[in-house]
Amino acid sequence: MNPNAFSVNRLDTIQPYKPSNQVAWFLPPESRPLKLDWNESPLPPSSKVQAAVRKFLEHPNALNWYPDANSHDLRIKLGQHWQVAEECVQTYCGSDSALHSAVRIFTRTGETVLMVSPTYDNFRIYALEAQCKVVLDGPQDIYTLTGAELAALVEKHKPRLVYLSNPNNPTGWLVPERDIVETAQRFPETMFIVDEAYAEFSGVTVIPRAVDLANLVVFRTFSKAYGLAGLRIGYVIGSPGNIANLNLIRNGKNVSMIGQVAAIAALDDQDYLKEILERVRAGEQILEDGLTRLGFGYRASPANFVLVKFPDAKRVQDGLVEQNAFVRSMSHLPGMEGYLRITLGDREQMTRFMAALEKTL
Fold first, then answer.
1. Is residue 276 located within the same domain as residue 236?
2. Which pLDDT score is estimated for 36?
3. CA 311, 315, 321: angle at the middle one, nearest 5?
């Protein structure tokens, strides 16, 4: 039998998303691996979150019932947190699931999707699956994107949809709220998808305007600063009309009840979030000092990662793996050969990382 007999022709040319190294999962915890390749939180979720999960598991039907498909309590909590109406919020099994739905709802076959690049590559798969024309274009300086440059890119390509990661993964540019809003207002026929996966670290958000602009939708996650990557919880904030449209193809059963409970507890523990942010910034100082001392260029990050170019990035990455230290190669992105992305941990983790890096070099 032809192994491709049931393949879909339009998918034949898609280059799949390249996930990070999964080796850390198979190492004993006592080996203390430095998992700095997927931008997770350096620490587990707070004790309050863990207690809430344990309490939930005492419910006799915690695991054999489907979850609340409406995420009622979590949506109310998110609405209170952001001071927006409940109908402006929807939850998903991670923000990736939400982004996947957004392409299918807000585009039609053959329309242009502009990904301001280099950026998070998974969105490319979703757009190609939806049979969109994907354009990868960005600023001359990969570390900086101005409002004027963003507007010029939209004017140049006239896309149906713009994907903007802000702060940008992996380069760390940060576009001010005003510039994003003004660009969206200037191009009302273009949908702006703003991925704010790392916005807890930067403090910059367009959420207040997403609820009243018809062409602006914000995507958030609990996977990064809140430390819930393993529970896959994300959410969308937008106008009631945009949320209603997204609901047309949303499967609410995909958002686990454990994830909903954990996310509510995480939102209730803002002191712990503040501690995580402070520890990440302290760790960044260790990394900045170390890389500067070694003669590598360093650009401060508004997120929880930094992007560094090495003369022989593969050798560096392989040498780190031998010491159970994992970073992310960006060579799968156009023009990013030689770049490694390093997730920021706390001071102790960054001190160990610098020791491993120096040994590798």
1. no
2. 98
3. 135
